[in-house]
Amino acid sequence: MTTSAHGYDLATKDLDPPLAIVDLDAFDANADDLLRRAAGKPIRVVSKSVRCRALLERALARDGFEGLMCYSLAEAVWHAELGTSDDIVVAYPTADHEALRRLAASERARAAVTIMVDSTEHLDLVDAALGHGHPDIRVCLELDASWRPLPGVHVGTRRSPVFKPGQAAAVARQIVARPGFRLVGMMAYEGQIAGLGDAAGRGVQNRVIGWMQRRSAAELARRRSAAVRAVREVADLEFVNGGGTGSIETTGAENVVTEIAAGSGFLAPTLFDGYSHFQPRPAALFALPVVRRPAKNVATLFSGGYIASGPTGPSRVPSPYLPEGLRLLGFEGAGEVQTPVTGEAARTLRLGDRVWLRHAKAGELAERFLQYHLVRGSQVERTVPTYRGEGQSFG
């Protein structure tokens, strides 16, 4: 079910755009679908795809969602000290000395937060920041989950240098032997499956992507199982994390995986429209006002150049959503101060009318707005700050 532009307009009639909303009915329906797809395996909520404490707390309040996965150590310590969660994994290694010192100084944060490592150099960095003799720091070892079918061919994100089970065991032994560190988890993120839609392109392209993902998932399942077994001979792991919104089913089917990471599926940005096995409801939208009518079939909106990170191209630009039948101009696109739209619906737009758009990525919209208006039906239920609205920016 999609709320009409009229419903969103009515809910926010007393607010001036640009503004951003989260449709709570869609958010909750997407949460239900994530849990259905996980088939009983717990989901760790990925904060970078939400970046709003109230929405993170809303997700964590539901059975089946357990713990946070943060993208920054400073962010993780902030959540730990606020009590958002007592189980937080930082998905990326840190070089933030100040955040490391805050972690070491807080018993509450040390008990809650697990940092990511993939080499002894990361341990060296922690020792350099804290000095020898520091309290035990919880660490998670990251296994590279890319697909390498042939020598020199790398399909997936560039993350950990630890690829083979023997490499994982070797690093695990070094961690366990190092004073001041406790190995408690393993992680592997299969971005070529979780973050790449298999129904986003044309027929041949989709078939190639689907074939690649099936082959990659089968290879990773064997390799991850062997790596986890090898590491468990060295350390008593509390968790093995894997996956993302796009790979919940395949990742969750692996017996060695104890939890799945997901975040974008709550808000459903446009990059998650192109999957064949799930269709989330758009939950995060932003409204821009019409400020010019340069032609009968063109309406120019104020602001709107919210370009998503990643490889540049059409997939990273915002998409007009409501009223239906609008599109960006190829020559001008979404601009810093103005965004023209065209299409049949543009003929009926007047100055001051709103156009609702969707961002390409889930969490990055929160970097543009200080608050989200949480909408249910044609009413704003409450207004909550984003990270930036709380004065937080974690890079």
From TrEMBL:
Q: Which protein are we looking at? A: Amino acid deaminase/aldolase
Q: Which CDD domains does the UniProt entry name for this protein?
A: PLPDE_III_DSD_D-TA_like_2
Q: What is the organism field in this record?
A: Amycolatopsis silviterrae
Query: What does the organism's lineage look like at the top?
Result: Bacteria, Bacillati, Actinomycetota, Actinomycetes, Pseudonocardiales
Q: Name one Pfam family in it.
A: Ala_racemase_N
**InterPro entries, A to Z:** Ala_racemase_N, D-amino_acid_metab_enzyme, PLP-binding_barrel
Q: Which domain of life is it from?
A: Bacteria
Q: Residue ranges of the Alanine racemase N-terminal domain?
A: 22-193
